Amino acid sequence: MEKVIFHIDVNSAYLSWEAVYRLREQGGSVDLREIPCAVGGDKSKRHGIILAKSLAAKACGVRTGEPLTEALKKCPGLTVVPAHHSLYRQYSKKFMDILREYTPDVQQYSIDEAFMDMSGMEKIIGDPVAFAHKLKNRISRELGFTVNIGISSNKYLAKMASDFEKPDKVHTLFPEEIPTKMWPLPVSDLIFVGRSTQEALHKLGIYTIGQLAGTDVEILRHHLKKQGETIWEFANGRDSSLVEPVPEGNKMYGNSTTVAFDITDEDTARMVLLSLSETVASRLRKDGQKAQMVSVSIRNTDMKTVSHQKVMPAATDITEEIYEAACQLFEELWDQSPIRLLGVQTGKLSSESQGRQMSLFDNTDYEKMERMDQAVDKIRKKYGKNAIMRASFLDNKKVDHMTGGHPDGGQVNLKTLKERKK
Ligand SMILES: [Mg+2]
What we know:
The chain is of the alpha+beta class.
């Protein structure tokens, strides 16, 4: 039976939430969504970057991710408000709480986006499209901000659909609608296609998603490696990943880091992934948990975030294993655009050891790896986290060997390039 997946996305989340806070909580009379306005940075100090913008600011040419100084040149009358991340977390929670009233199968994808698996619920909700309109209107009435809802039979298509015309809209993109609704769009509209992939595809004469879908996958693999195959699957509407709900109250073991410089090479990215895997895995071990799902998120300099997940053959708390999975996901996902943020998350947790399914093709000595991790944890507990580190970090002064340590993402632990040169 075909699945029914919703992707719900808050329209200009940070800006909407700032607007709602001022109108509803502070009794303000100006709706920031209706004037040229942006969230991010500090206007008096003229630094920082644009995190979100109103439609009026967009009409002036203001872009998300660009420096504030650039935005002010294009739009001198721009109202700039600083970001209030704790406020956004509160609105995000209220938003997710409403979704969870309808099904436990809610997967939070980012602070302002979630997937819902609504399969087999017609008896309760009726027609999914009519229900989506009700849901969207309820959020707007109760919480004061608007969302877009995309509906399809898999997550990728649902996410594509929610990105169609905004704001306050419901769109469908079922497999039979792919040729008319998705294939005529430019390749840059595909979620995993950034600027450099777009350029590579243009060189191959591929301009639309339909042209990409019809290209021999071998050609794409040759030019774009694993990522070529990933985007070809998506262009054909294929995505087998499931909605992975995180029950409320369940701890998420994840970590991300915003970098002080843009990461442009794979080696540095791998170092950061190792450092993040190290902190995530050590927290799992400390709490006696194992994870079967690993996901990686990448945010580029346009502030676009993509993430990708995989389910492992067995639950694990081994640093090396989580790191290997993270690298594989990274390879499938990264399109060479400069990176601002990297994250490693784990889910599908279990505290009981289920035992591993032995495989003829896998000679890895997992017990030995587990013993090594335990030994490392003991040494760090006794002598501090820097008492022992992987050899690959010894010559690298750019990346801290254990990044972050906070579930919401750590502080910047990467040393600046200037420090590196010292
Ligand atoms: Mg959004």
